[in-house]
Design goal:
Layout: H1 2-8, E1 12-16, H2 22-34, E2 38-43, H3 46-58, E3 64-68, H4 71-82, E4 85-90, H5 96-107, E5 110-119, H6 125-136, E6 140-145, E7 149-154, E8 158-159, E9 162-163, E10 167-169, H7 181-193, H8 200-204
Helix pairs in contact: 1-2, 2-7, 5-6
Protein backbone atom coordinates (compact mmCIF):
# COMPACT_ATOMS: atom_id res chain seq x y z
CA UNK A 1 0.00 0.00 0.00
CA UNK A 2 2.81 2.38 0.88
CA UNK A 3 4.56 1.73 -2.43
CA UNK A 4 1.36 2.11 -4.43
CA UNK A 5 0.89 5.57 -2.96
CA UNK A 6 4.53 6.46 -3.58
CA UNK A 7 4.49 5.33 -7.21
CA UNK A 8 1.03 6.40 -8.38
CA UNK A 9 0.86 9.54 -6.20
CA UNK A 10 -2.87 9.80 -5.53
CA UNK A 11 -3.97 12.77 -3.45
CA UNK A 12 -7.44 11.60 -2.37
CA UNK A 13 -7.48 8.23 -0.61
CA UNK A 14 -10.44 6.40 0.90
CA UNK A 15 -10.23 3.45 3.31
CA UNK A 16 -13.14 1.27 4.38
CA UNK A 17 -12.14 -0.46 7.62
CA UNK A 18 -9.81 1.54 9.89
CA UNK A 19 -9.37 -1.15 12.56
CA UNK A 20 -6.31 -0.07 14.61
CA UNK A 21 -5.12 2.38 11.98
CA UNK A 22 -2.08 0.45 10.74
CA UNK A 23 -3.07 0.41 7.07
CA UNK A 24 -4.10 4.06 7.23
CA UNK A 25 -0.67 4.84 8.67
CA UNK A 26 0.98 3.24 5.64
CA UNK A 27 -1.27 5.27 3.36
CA UNK A 28 -0.88 8.56 5.23
CA UNK A 29 2.89 8.26 5.65
CA UNK A 30 3.32 7.70 1.91
CA UNK A 31 1.18 10.77 1.19
CA UNK A 32 3.34 12.75 3.62
CA UNK A 33 6.50 11.70 1.80
CA UNK A 34 4.88 12.60 -1.52
CA UNK A 35 4.13 16.05 -0.13
CA UNK A 36 0.36 16.07 -0.61
CA UNK A 37 -2.87 14.22 -0.02
CA UNK A 38 -5.03 12.90 2.76
CA UNK A 39 -6.83 9.75 3.84
CA UNK A 40 -10.48 9.48 4.81
CA UNK A 41 -10.99 6.26 6.75
CA UNK A 42 -14.29 4.72 7.90
CA UNK A 43 -14.71 2.44 10.93
CA UNK A 44 -17.78 1.11 12.75
CA UNK A 45 -16.27 0.80 16.25
CA UNK A 46 -15.62 4.08 18.11
CA UNK A 47 -12.96 2.46 20.33
CA UNK A 48 -10.97 1.45 17.26
CA UNK A 49 -11.23 4.96 15.84
CA UNK A 50 -9.82 6.32 19.13
CA UNK A 51 -6.93 3.84 19.00
CA UNK A 52 -6.21 4.66 15.35
CA UNK A 53 -6.21 8.37 16.13
CA UNK A 54 -3.67 7.79 18.93
CA UNK A 55 -1.45 5.77 16.60
CA UNK A 56 -1.51 8.43 13.91
CA UNK A 57 -0.91 11.24 16.38
CA UNK A 58 2.09 9.41 17.80
CA UNK A 59 3.49 9.12 14.27
CA UNK A 60 2.92 12.76 13.43
CA UNK A 61 0.32 11.92 10.78
CA UNK A 62 -2.13 14.80 10.62
CA UNK A 63 -3.51 13.99 7.17
CA UNK A 64 -6.11 11.40 8.24
CA UNK A 65 -9.82 12.12 8.69
CA UNK A 66 -12.01 9.65 10.59
CA UNK A 67 -15.62 8.70 9.96
CA UNK A 68 -17.34 6.47 12.51
CA UNK A 69 -20.34 4.38 11.49
CA UNK A 70 -21.58 1.68 9.16
CA UNK A 71 -20.12 1.78 5.66
CA UNK A 72 -23.58 1.88 4.11
CA UNK A 73 -24.52 4.94 6.18
CA UNK A 74 -21.28 6.92 6.11
CA UNK A 75 -19.83 6.22 2.67
CA UNK A 76 -21.92 8.92 0.98
CA UNK A 77 -20.78 11.79 3.23
CA UNK A 78 -17.17 10.54 3.09
CA UNK A 79 -17.25 10.56 -0.71
CA UNK A 80 -18.73 14.05 -0.74
CA UNK A 81 -15.91 15.16 1.54
CA UNK A 82 -13.22 13.73 -0.75
CA UNK A 83 -14.90 15.00 -3.96
CA UNK A 84 -12.74 12.63 -6.07
CA UNK A 85 -11.23 9.26 -5.10
CA UNK A 86 -7.89 8.32 -6.63
CA UNK A 87 -7.22 5.26 -4.47
CA UNK A 88 -9.76 3.22 -2.51
CA UNK A 89 -8.81 0.48 -0.04
CA UNK A 90 -11.83 -1.72 0.73
CA UNK A 91 -10.99 -3.74 3.83
CA UNK A 92 -14.18 -4.75 5.59
CA UNK A 93 -17.66 -6.28 5.27
CA UNK A 94 -16.26 -9.26 3.41
CA UNK A 95 -19.36 -10.30 1.49
CA UNK A 96 -20.02 -10.37 -2.21
CA UNK A 97 -22.91 -7.94 -2.64
CA UNK A 98 -21.75 -5.29 -0.17
CA UNK A 99 -18.29 -5.31 -1.80
CA UNK A 100 -19.80 -4.80 -5.23
CA UNK A 101 -22.13 -2.11 -3.87
CA UNK A 102 -19.21 -0.19 -2.33
CA UNK A 103 -17.29 -0.42 -5.60
CA UNK A 104 -20.32 0.91 -7.46
CA UNK A 105 -20.77 3.86 -5.12
CA UNK A 106 -17.07 4.74 -5.00
CA UNK A 107 -16.73 4.46 -8.79
CA UNK A 108 -19.16 7.35 -9.24
CA UNK A 109 -16.71 9.59 -7.36
CA UNK A 110 -13.49 8.04 -8.66
CA UNK A 111 -11.03 9.48 -11.13
CA UNK A 112 -10.87 7.71 -14.48
CA UNK A 113 -7.59 5.98 -13.60
CA UNK A 114 -8.31 5.33 -9.93
CA UNK A 115 -6.81 2.36 -8.10
CA UNK A 116 -9.00 0.01 -6.07
CA UNK A 117 -7.51 -2.41 -3.54
CA UNK A 118 -9.77 -5.20 -2.26
CA UNK A 119 -8.52 -7.07 0.78
CA UNK A 120 -9.25 -10.73 1.58
CA UNK A 121 -10.58 -11.74 -1.84
CA UNK A 122 -10.23 -15.36 -0.71
CA UNK A 123 -11.96 -14.81 2.62
CA UNK A 124 -15.06 -16.68 1.47
CA UNK A 125 -16.69 -18.05 -1.68
CA UNK A 126 -18.70 -14.84 -1.81
CA UNK A 127 -15.59 -12.65 -1.82
CA UNK A 128 -14.08 -14.78 -4.57
CA UNK A 129 -17.24 -14.33 -6.64
CA UNK A 130 -17.02 -10.59 -6.02
CA UNK A 131 -13.46 -10.58 -7.36
CA UNK A 132 -14.53 -12.52 -10.46
CA UNK A 133 -17.32 -10.02 -11.03
CA UNK A 134 -14.96 -7.07 -10.61
CA UNK A 135 -12.54 -8.52 -13.15
CA UNK A 136 -15.38 -8.61 -15.69
CA UNK A 137 -16.50 -5.05 -14.99
CA UNK A 138 -15.98 -2.74 -17.97
CA UNK A 139 -14.59 -0.02 -15.68
CA UNK A 140 -11.64 -2.20 -14.62
CA UNK A 141 -8.77 -2.11 -17.09
CA UNK A 142 -6.19 -4.14 -15.18
CA UNK A 143 -6.53 -6.53 -12.25
CA UNK A 144 -3.71 -7.98 -10.17
CA UNK A 145 -4.39 -11.01 -7.98
CA UNK A 146 -2.00 -10.66 -5.03
CA UNK A 147 -3.32 -13.87 -3.47
CA UNK A 148 -4.55 -12.30 -0.23
CA UNK A 149 -5.84 -9.14 -1.88
CA UNK A 150 -6.36 -7.65 -5.32
CA UNK A 151 -5.40 -4.41 -7.03
CA UNK A 152 -7.56 -3.00 -9.81
CA UNK A 153 -6.82 -0.07 -12.10
CA UNK A 154 -9.58 1.85 -13.81
CA UNK A 155 -9.41 3.34 -17.26
CA UNK A 156 -10.66 2.83 -20.79
CA UNK A 157 -10.77 -0.70 -22.16
CA UNK A 158 -11.84 0.29 -25.66
CA UNK A 159 -9.12 0.80 -28.24
CA UNK A 160 -9.85 1.58 -31.90
CA UNK A 161 -13.48 0.62 -31.31
CA UNK A 162 -12.62 -2.81 -29.89
CA UNK A 163 -13.47 -3.89 -26.37
CA UNK A 164 -10.34 -5.29 -24.70
CA UNK A 165 -10.86 -7.81 -21.87
CA UNK A 166 -9.57 -6.91 -18.44
CA UNK A 167 -6.02 -8.13 -18.05
CA UNK A 168 -5.53 -10.13 -14.87
CA UNK A 169 -2.06 -10.84 -13.58
CA UNK A 170 -0.58 -12.73 -10.67
CA UNK A 171 2.04 -11.13 -8.46
CA UNK A 172 4.70 -9.70 -10.76
CA UNK A 173 7.42 -7.96 -8.84
CA UNK A 174 9.22 -8.00 -5.52
CA UNK A 175 10.88 -4.81 -4.36
CA UNK A 176 14.07 -4.71 -2.33
CA UNK A 177 13.61 -4.05 1.35
CA UNK A 178 15.38 -0.70 1.02
CA UNK A 179 12.37 0.70 -0.83
CA UNK A 180 10.27 0.04 2.25
CA UNK A 181 12.50 1.81 4.77
CA UNK A 182 10.23 4.89 5.09
CA UNK A 183 7.22 2.72 5.86
CA UNK A 184 9.15 0.67 8.40
CA UNK A 185 10.29 3.80 10.20
CA UNK A 186 6.75 5.18 10.39
CA UNK A 187 5.12 1.91 11.40
CA UNK A 188 7.63 0.52 13.90
CA UNK A 189 6.51 2.98 16.55
CA UNK A 190 2.87 2.16 15.99
CA UNK A 191 3.41 -1.57 16.38
CA UNK A 192 5.43 -1.11 19.55
CA UNK A 193 2.84 1.25 21.00
CA UNK A 194 0.09 -1.30 20.41
CA UNK A 195 2.10 -4.17 21.84
CA UNK A 196 2.49 -5.84 18.45
CA UNK A 197 5.58 -7.36 16.93
CA UNK A 198 7.70 -5.14 14.70
CA UNK A 199 6.59 -5.18 11.03
CA UNK A 200 10.03 -5.27 9.40
CA UNK A 201 10.16 -8.95 8.47
CA UNK A 202 6.74 -8.88 6.84
CA UNK A 203 7.39 -5.64 5.02
CA UNK A 204 10.62 -6.97 3.59
CA UNK A 205 8.64 -9.74 1.90
CA UNK A 206 5.87 -7.55 0.46
CA UNK A 207 5.12 -8.19 -3.19
CA UNK A 208 3.86 -4.94 -4.64
CA UNK A 209 2.73 -4.60 -8.23
CA UNK A 210 3.48 -0.94 -8.77
CA UNK A 211 4.54 -1.41 -12.39
CA UNK A 212 1.89 -3.85 -13.54
CA UNK A 213 0.07 -1.81 -16.17
CA UNK A 214 0.67 -3.11 -19.67
CA UNK A 215 2.81 -6.05 -18.65
CA UNK A 216 2.16 -9.74 -19.01
CA UNK A 217 2.85 -12.49 -16.50
Amino acid sequence: MHLLIREFRPAHVLELGTNLGISAAYLASALKINGQGRVVTIELAPDRVDLARQVHTSLGLDNVSYVCGRFADTLGPALDDLVSVELAFIDGHYQMQPTLDYFERISRHASSDALFVFDDIRWSPGMWRAWKSLRADARIRVGVDMLGYAICAGGPRRFAGTEVPCRTYPVLIQHPASRLAPARRHLAGAHVGLGLSAPDSGLARYNVADTFVGRSA
